[in-house]
Amino acid sequence: MARKLPLDELSTVIARIHGLLLTEEKVDRAVRLLARAIKDSVSGATGAGVSLLDSRGSLTSSASTDDVVTRADALQYDFGQGPCLTSWATEETVVVQDVAADPRWPDWTDAVKDMSVRSVVSAPLLAEQQCIGALKIYSDVAGGFGEDTARVLELFAAPAATLLANIQASEAPHRISGALAESLHSRDLVNRACGVLMQRHSLTVDMALAELMRRARRQNSTLGQISADLVAGIPAALD
Fold first, then answer.
1. 113 φ/ψ angles, rounded to the nearest 5 degrees
2. What is the average pLDDT value for the chain, to the nearest integer?
3. How confident is the model at residue 176 (pLDDT cuts 50, 70, 90)?
4. pTM for the full model?
């Protein structure tokens, strides 16, 4: 189990991240620094990563400290399912105690079964009530992380999200302003759309959420619009 960082140590690490990000004008460089700082600060983490996403769930920037994180993350976006995407879409921290025994993302779980990925924590990056991405840490042992680790990652995520959003805005205002002007999704609307899919196709909530995200990317639409169309009764069959 990862240790809980003492308050003074945690404060020092967060202040260091503030200083690193504030000196960086390029978001790609900033996310690399953040990923490294997170891995170095969380005991038991064998890898860490940062993913920034647009309103369609497509990557705009990402960084990983290790090849296994890069590969595991890429598989999430290939399948449209996984703890990082779920954390982004639900705006909640996701803790996976044992990847091999977790039924929430069957395609992704099967794809990473031979990789050194056993425990995962992913926290959303919330900036001005908008989720711009997620942080994640990986461990090669089951039960590597607990609620203390989740809380530490959330403490990293809160200031980092605001700073990364500011860096994005200054680097590419025309791109970011469009993403932030449009709400990524209404939690209530997405929940209702998930309920429709769950009832119609006997899916779990995570399977339904993954299906919504897959449709959004395939139709080049937003998660909110796909959910609105589904709730409004526009037909959309599972492939």
1. -60, -30
2. 79
3. very low
4. 0.69
Residue 210: C-alpha distances to residues 19, 156, 237 (Å): 36, 26, 14
- Residue 237 maps to a domain: no
User: Looking at 136, 163, 179, which one is the last position of a domain?
Assistant: 179
Beta carbons within 10 angstroms of residue 27's beta carbon: 24
Q: Name the burial class of residue 229, with classes exposed (0-12), middle (13-18) and buried (19+) by CB atoms within 10 angstroms of its CB.
A: middle
DSSP state of 109: H
Q: How many domains does the chain have?
A: 2
Same structural domain, 215 and 158: no
Dihedral of CA atoms 190, 192, 195, 200 in degrees, nearest 10, equals: -100
User: Quick one: what percent of the chain has pLDDT higher than 70?
Assistant: 77
Cβ 118 vs Cβ 139: under 8 Å:
yes
Task: Domain of residue 16: give its range.
Answer: 7-179
- Do residues 145 and 138 make contact, with C-beta atoms less than 8 angstroms apart? no
Domain end call among 179, 199, 217: 179
CATH number, position 85: 3.30.450.40
Query: What is the C-alpha separation between 90 and 191, in angstroms, rounded?
Result: 9
CATH number of the domain within which 227 lies:
1.10.10
Distance CA 223, CA 45 (A): 31
